[in-house]
Amino acid sequence: MLKRDFYFDLPKELIAQEPCTPRDAARLLCLGRQDGSIRHKVFRDLPELLTPGDLLVVNNSKVLPARLIGHKNGTGAACELLLLRQVRGDVWECLARPGKRLHQGNQVVFGDGSLTGTILETKSDGNKHVSFQFTGAKTLYEKLDAFGKMPLPPYIQKQLEDQSQYQTVYAKELGSAAAPTAGLHFTPELMDTLRARGIQFAEITLHVGLGTFRPVKEEDITDHKMHSEWYCIDEATARKINDTKAAGYRVIAVGTTSCRTLEAAAATYGDIRPCSGDTDIFIYPGYEYKAIDGLITNFHLPESTLIMLVSAFCGYENTMHAYKVAVEQRYRFFSFGDAMLII
């Protein structure tokens, strides 16, 4: 298939700039996977739409406030580092701005001066390896909490009033550069209601990288090189998934990150088992799903790998029609937007 097959016209005003309040008041488009039927609900209606015994698999990765704005030691020039990946200890791979003016040995100072970063080397892709030094804290994460900002997607122009707005309520494992946004709609109260109805939860971890926003540049989508991300499925989650399947109930991935984690494990091992590693699985029409029976997801960018993943799950025609309806009905799109339930 071609990239342009996944294009749709999206009015700019439908790109959500802030989350819904309360979280579970977001709209929910329910899409029938087999027949393409569409119903319009609200996210807090979820308990009525699922069956007792169903299992929701959520990504518990927590977003690092990884955007650091500081100045170059010696010149005072403004610069920015975005932490992408831990290399070792307090050495991180970072996206630097302005990257061409930051060279090996240069220091960047943040906040009150108690956090500095030293440029160790520049990689072939322009990213930097940076060693961080700090005082007044036991870990670098404490300094990120003090001085860092959430690395919001480029289409969100409005600054957050509260950084927790870009975290799921069940986030616990630090490591993501972007939020697993389908989970932003859950509240503790809604999760309690779901559990009381007999709907279970299980957690996986996939640390979301900025590659999730990387556009598909190749016209033939099969030529696209997918980014790699680290994931982990523990024993308790593997057991819950297998028990749910054995009992005849549905495994529903909350978000494309949970979906990619489960499908990567199933593709690698033939089943769901405790495992961890890196995955660059690219799911597009023609892929046969092996692990999930349902999907909760937001509305994605035109021509993105994420809308391709959705199309592989419920069919190309069903997906593009649902997106057309969502635009006509003025659903809110992208990270802070409304949601879809596909079962």
Explain what you see.
By secondary structure, the protein is α/β, with parallel strands linked by helices. The protein has 2 domains: 3-63 and 162-342, QueA-like, CATH 3.40.1780.10; 67-147, Beta Barrel (Thrombin, subunit H). Helices cover 20% and strands 28% of the residues. It contains 7 helices and 17 strands. It has helices at 46-49, 140-147, 188-196, 235-246, 256-269, 305-314, 316-328; strands at 27-31, 38-42, 55-59, 61-63, 67-72, 78-88, 91-97, 107-110, 115-122, 128-134, 173-176, 200-206, 229-233, 251-254, 275-279, 294-298, 339-342. Strands 2-1-17-16-14-3-12-13-15 form a 9-stranded mixed beta sheet. α6 (305-314) crosses α7. The mean pLDDT is 95.
Q: Which strand order do you get reading across the main beta sheet? A: 2-1-17-16-14-3-12-13-15
How many domain units?
A: 2
Average predicted confidence as pLDDT? 95
Write the CATH architecture name of the largest domain: 3-Layer(aba) Sandwich
Structural class: alpha/beta
Oligomer designation: single chain
What are the SSEs and their pairings?
Blueprint: E1 27-31, E2 38-42, H1 46-49, E3 55-59, E4 61-63, E5 67-72, E6 78-88, E7 91-97, E8 107-110, E9 115-122, E10 128-134, H2 140-147, E11 173-176, H3 188-196, E12 200-206, E13 229-233, H4 235-246, E14 251-254, H5 256-269, E15 275-279, E16 294-298, H6 305-314, H7 316-328, E17 339-342
Keywords:
alpha/beta, QueA-like, 2 domains, 6-stranded antiparallel beta barrel, 343 residues, single chain, Thrombin, subunit H
What is the structure about, briefly put?
With 343 residues, the chain is an alpha/beta fold. It has seven helices and 17 strands.
